[in-house]
Amino acid sequence: MTRQAHLARDTAVRPVGFGRFAGTVTDGWLIAPGGAANGGYLMTMAARAMQAVVPQPDPVTVTAHFLRPAPLGEVLIATEVVRTGRRHSTVQAAVTDPGGTEEYVRLLGAFGDLASAEGPTRVDRHPPDLPPIEECVDTWEAERRLREQNPERRQPPPMFDRLDLRFPADVAGWAIGQPLGRGEMKSYSRLAGDESMDSFGLLMLADALPPAVFNTGEMRGWVPTVELTVQIRKRPAPGWLRTVFRTEALTRGYLEEDGEIWDEDGDLVALSRQLALAARSRRGG
Amino acid sequence: MTRQAHLARDTAVRPVGFGRFAGTVTDGWLIAPGGAANGGYLMTMAARAMQAVVPQPDPVTVTAHFLRPAPLGEVLIATEVVRTGRRHSTVQAAVTDPGGTEEYVRLLGAFGDLASAEGPTRVDRHPPDLPPIEECVDTWEAERRLREQNPERRQPPPMFDRLDLRFPADVAGWAIGQPLGRGEMKSYSRLAGDESMDSFGLLMLADALPPAVFNTGEMRGWVPTVELTVQIRKRPAPGWLRTVFRTEALTRGYLEEDGEIWDEDGDLVALSRQLALAARSRRGG
Question: What is the mean pLDDT of residues B38-51?
Fold first, then answer.
């Protein structure tokens, strides 16, 4: 397998002024061919700019409001330090076109040093129950074989090439019209080419799987995110991550998706929650 | 009982300039005698100012980062409209001293019209299991009787007077050294004097109960909130609300508290999550 995620490269930012950074939205992280860039990908990019203006190295909690799709190409990330503290610092950011006219994402986050965190620990959550990885569906491989058989087959999301996801067979059933019957999506996850995952990459991964609501059987289609908040608890250990996302309250078109990401040490590395819309059209606004 | 919550009065804001509002932090919502004002109370106040600059009437998701305690007296709430949309609008706000020098809370929220929301509904969550209300502990009454017996007894939090909370006996056990053994806090809840609760008041209620982590038995003391996000799904029906808060991942001093608020119609009206610290001192920063 020669796929590579290139997440670090594709989310790199460079300073272009006081508290201002440029990044490039690449075509590797689109959620559909010709579609919008993944929200979590934009969040990882923005968080790198936010971190660059404070002393602490890790995102601890980051909230993003998604305003409109970001087109491919250069974006401006304008940061504002809200408060610099000894243990945590708080930063706001706006991701816009290079001229600063159209805003795509507004963010607010707190940064800390996860390597030096200390205090009481008690975890009553458990990593998602997954079958052995060799029994899981490698959806990328399955897609590749299906396209070999049928070159007319609709292309999968470009982002799909950047991730290595292995789903339990029943969890992947929604894609062939056999949803689980509950709002759950879970998998082994890592970056393609086994690129190393840092605390910033977890922001992307918190928004990378197909919507858990697809497994309820209640709906398919566009599920635009209004707001996504990710708590990062630990820099992930190398290797496979276990991810699980659940939607348990779809109310009059609003839904939450709650996620957990666990690493190979068995530690909870991130908790996420988003508010999304069961939209009738592609426009969420 | 002549207690009154006065939440509407104590969170009212008045315009003082373009996008700028004044509010008054009263002594009714302190989390300890002489202590800090409750974060959720400040959030309700700020959200009223944020709503005043957009067409939509309800908070749909609001995130607050708590930077430092707000003293009693007047505060300035400076808003910035990030995006005005047909269905949702996004607003940022800073709560500061009247001169705009010291910032206490930074917020980012989306507003919509919950009365006109429509779309698919499927709720796999359930309201918290609570015994009949007459079997629950009215902690305010219990406190009052204890103070009659012992006038030297330490005063409860002033905020306690503004709320009418009824806890299952086992859930209230933490207060007498008998924690449940799991991170859960649940109760019937309403504003004192049965003041009506609107979509804004839910922001306060999402931060009003004692920390769920107290019921693990792992820790007591100051649990400063770094960030609180509340999703509001419905304007609550009149009457008792059922509230439940859970902490299931305390990792090296960081903890989440996930909340649900249900109304008398049996509808989920709010989902909340905060990131808080198991702090050794009173300063969270």
Answer: 98
Residue B191 pairs in a beta bridge with B163
Q: Is the pLDDT of residue B153 over 90?
A: no
Could you tell me the two tokens for B114? 């919950």
Instruction: Quote the minimal CA–CA distance from A271 to chain B in Å.
Output: 9
How many Å apart are CA A130 and CA B23, to the nearest integer? 51
Read off the pLDDT of residues B257-280 as tens digits, 9 standing for 90 and up. 999 999 999 999 999 999 999 976
Q: How many pairs of residues across A and B have Cβ atoms under 8 Å apart? A: 187
> Mean pLDDT across the stretch A74-87?
98
Tokens of A28: 């590797």
Please report how many Cα atoms fall inside a 13 Å half-sphere around the Cα of residue B44, on the Cβ side: 27
pLDDT of residue B1: 53
Q: What's the gap in Å between the CA of A67 and the closest CA on chain B? A: 7
**Cα–Cα distance between B144 and B263 in angstroms, integer?**
28
Task: State whether B250 and A123 contact (CB < 8 Å).
Answer: yes
Instruction: Specify the DSSP class assigned to residue A30.
Output: B
Global ipTM: 0.96
3-state secondary structure B182-213: CCEEEEEEEEHHHCCCCCCHHHHHCCCCCCHH
From A65, A119, A275, residue closest to B278, measured CB to CB = A119
Direct distance between the N- and C-terminal alpha carbons of chain A, in angstroms, rounded to an integer:
40
The C-alpha R_g of chain A, in whole angstroms, comes to: 18
Q: How far is A251 from chain B (nearest CA, A)?
A: 4
From residue B79, how far is each of A15, B15, B60, B90, B132 by CA, in Å?
28, 11, 17, 11, 43
B61, B255, B258, B282, best to mutate vs chain A, most A CBs in 10 Å: B61
Chain A, window 190-229: residues with a beta carbon less than 8 angstroms from a chain B beta carbon: 216, 218-219, 226-227, 229
Give the whole-angstrom CA distance, residue B123 versus residue B118: 15
Interface of B with A in 81-140 (CB under 8 A): 82-83, 85-88, 90, 92, 94, 103, 106-108, 110, 117-125
* Cβ neighbours of A273 in B, within 8 Å: 229, 271, 273
